[in-house]
Design brief:
Blueprint: E1 3-11, E2 22-32, H1 34-41, E3 45-52, E4 55-62, E5 68-76, H2 78-88, E6 93-102, E7 105-112, E8 120-125, E9 139-142, H3 151-156, H4 164-167
Amino acid sequence: MAVEIERKFLVTGDAWRAQAVHEQRMVQGYLIDAGLVRSQTGTRCSLRVRVGGDQAWLNVKSATLGVERLEYDYPIPVADAERMLGDFCNGVVEKVRHYVPHAGLTFEVDEFFGESAGLIVAEVELQSTAQAIARPDWLGREVTAHLRYYNLNLLQHPYSRWSERERNGE
């Protein structure tokens, strides 16, 4: 069983850019979203297809909020993934993922484009839910428990459509 332990934060400022060691453009869409599956079958997961550079994956993730979630990734041919994105997905999330090392961890800073342009979040994968992290100066408020920052929600309710209250974390 694959368990992902991940925390998500807003990013403040641009200081992280100088520390990034690699970046990768990503496009992802959902073949099955958790809401539809839950209402029709009782299953609580999403199934997404993602293309990142010259690689692609099918990803199954539990539809639970929080730091710890079940996740399975399977590599697939890029041509198949691109076809699935076009044929089966109702829209895509586009972003550039920047890899930023800090204090022994790598923060994945996602800079969104398209309808979610302007939103920048950082995720960090951990070994345990109790693992402490050294927070870089550019790391803002934690949003791990806020559904609106999850990629599936950004597809359904993009950042450009958020109210001022939503953008301020209310």
